[in-house]
Structures are given as C-alpha cells and as structure tokens.
Amino acid sequence: MNLKISVGIWYMGSVGDRFVKDGYRSQKNIIERIKLISEIEGVGGIELHYPTEINEDNIDDIRKTLNETGLEIVQLCPHLWVNPEWKYGAFSNPDPKIRKEALKLAKHTADIGREFEPEVMVYWPAQDGYDYFFQVNYGKRIGHIVDCMAELCSYAKYQKFAIEYKAFEPRAHIFLGRVGEVMTIINEIGLDNLGVNIDIGHALIVKETISESLALINRYDKLFHTHWNDNHTVFDDDIIVGTVNFWQTLEFTYWLYKTNYEKWHGLDLFPYREDPSSIVRESIDNIKFFYKMAELIDKNNMEEIFYNSDPVKMSKILREIMREGIDYK
Questions:
Q1: N or C: at which end does the chain have fewer Cβ atoms within 10 angstroms?
Q2: 147 and 280 share one domain
Q3: Using an 8 Å Cβ cutoff, are 4 and 283 in contact?
Q4: Taking residues 125-140, what's their average pLDDT?
Q5: What is the pLDDT of residue 327?
C-alpha cells in the first residue's frame, strides 16, 4: 500500500515539560525542523500551526524549503490555545469579542492555507472547556462552538476541516471530548467539509475502543485524518505507536485496511528525551508492521469469527501469525 505519513513540526525541536521547561535538547528553528523531517524515509508531509510555526515572516522560507525537499503541508491549524486571552475558551469564550478574534484567526489561517492546499485544517478545542462545576453554562458554550465552526466551514468551503476531540488537558474537561459528542456536533452542522481527526491517544485516555469509534465516524463518512501515537491510558503521553496498546492499535489498523483508508497517517508524538527522528522512524515501522499483520489476518474467514464471536479461534490466528514472523519492510 502507499502509506502516506505526515509529521508534526512541533516536536522536531526541543520539547519542554513542567520540570525542564526548555527541554532536553537544543532548539531548532522551523526550517531546520522541516529539513530534518525530509531526511526521514517514508515521510511525505508536515503538520504545523499558524501563526506560531508558519507566519508572514517565514512563509517565503517555508515555501522554498518545501519545494527543495518535496514535502507538502498536510495539516494546518489555527493555534487557538497558546494565547492567554483564550484561557477561558476561544470558540466557546463567553465574550463575543474574544470569539470574534479567534474566528478571525481561524479564517486567516484558511486564507494562508489556500496556497498550500492542505489535506485538512484541524480545530482542537483545547482551551474550550472548564475546570470546576458551576463554572460555565454548558449549553451556551457548546452553542458558541457550533456557531463558530459553521461560520468557519462556510467561509472556506474549498477546505476540509476536522475536529480533533480530546477530553482533558489543558482544561480539566474539554468540550467535544468523546467521539459521540463530536459526531453529534458535526451532524448538527451538516456541512460536507467538516469531519473528524481521530487521535489514537485521545480516544484511549477516555477508554474508548478506538475501532468502535472509527466505525461510528465511518458510518457518516466523516474520517478526514488520523493521528498516531500511544499512551498508558491515563495521560496523553504521545509515545511510539503501538508500544503499549498493541492489540487495540492492531485492530484499529485492521479496520482502516478493511475500509481502504488512503488518507494521511499523521504522527502526533512528543519525544521529550529521545531523538525525534528515531521515534518517527520507529513509529513508521510499527505502522507498516500493523498493516502487514492486518493483511495476514484478513486471509482468514473473519466474518465467521465475527458471526460466532469466537475469541479462541482469533487468539490462535494471531499467535500463529506472530509465530511465523512478518516481513513488513
């Protein structure tokens, strides 16, 4: 298969945590990060944010570097969670002036992106949430998000937009934090250019079975993008794909294989200490491994297994595939 891989620009430099705020390695500028990504075999695209990573000051250099490296911008996001003004929400903020400014930034991001024709522009609610009970009017806040997303998607009808759901962090509770919630809003808005970016780690931390979440999204043909990573189901660790939740990731890959998923596989990782290029390479190899396993699994009579709900037979099939070994290169 033609595995389309994109890499987030944000973790190719230094990544800080609460205790080592400047990170564990030297920082790199955006152009250096793009060049690093271009050296990783199998990567065809980058993901980045406006205005923190691409902006009017560096857009010419980015354009030139993309032409030199052959990479393309796959995902472009308005950075709606890094400004202190949005501490109580961007699209959900109760102040109409702040909502208007957030929407203005999102629309301008779409304008910037028109030249590069990204596969998808993602809205991550992030600051659109709450930390205490009796802190917000839930209905009004969700209504503000619906209004802003509808206006944004109508403003740039040529562009596909995707909502990336996540239940917490940076807020204790983020609106549209689960697959059912985000699908409810997408179906309410009812525009063809609005869908979902499913992030494996975001689904795992709310104990979703990611293949079931995928099935719900696919039921309405709203899968616009995927983000790949892993975690320990407590926090959004963004570690190497498939290193913790092996079987969940394998099943998710199987159903992508069965539904002929041909869009991008975005690597949304957060390597604090490890070399990011090596983390990307290992994640790509793991995704290839999962797809090869999916192909081998599918050579069995899976419909009979599903019909009979037969975990014993499935366990034997998986063990036999692992025992025989897999050539995924």
A1: C
A2: yes
A3: no
A4: 98
A5: 78
Distances (CA, A) of 300 to 257, 293, 316: 14, 12, 11
C-alpha to C-alpha distance for 14 and 216, rounded to whole angstroms: 37
Count of domains in the chain?
2
Count CA atoms within 13 Å of residue 224 on its CB side.
Answer: 24
Q: For residue range 190-220, list pLDDT tens digits in order.
A: 999 999 999 999 999 999 999 999 999 999 9
193 and 322 together in one domain: no
Tokens of 267: 């690597």
> Are the beta carbons of 210 and 198 closer than 8 angstroms?
yes
Query: Token digits for 158?
Result: 């040529």
| Cβ–Cβ < 8 Å for 296, 280 | no
Structure tokens at 266: 């975005």
- DSSP labels for 159-212? S-EEE---SSSSSSEESS-SHHHHHHHHHHH--TTEEEEEEHHHHHTTT--HHH
314 with 235, same domain?
no
* Residue numbers of the domain that contains 328: 300-329
Residue 93, domain CATH: 3.20.20.150
* Residue 188 and residue 138 share a domain: yes
Confidence (pTM): 0.97
Model pLDDT for residues 6-43, shown as the tens digit of each residue? 999 999 999 998 899 999 999 999 999 999 999 999 99
Q: Are residues 182 and 321 in the same domain?
A: no
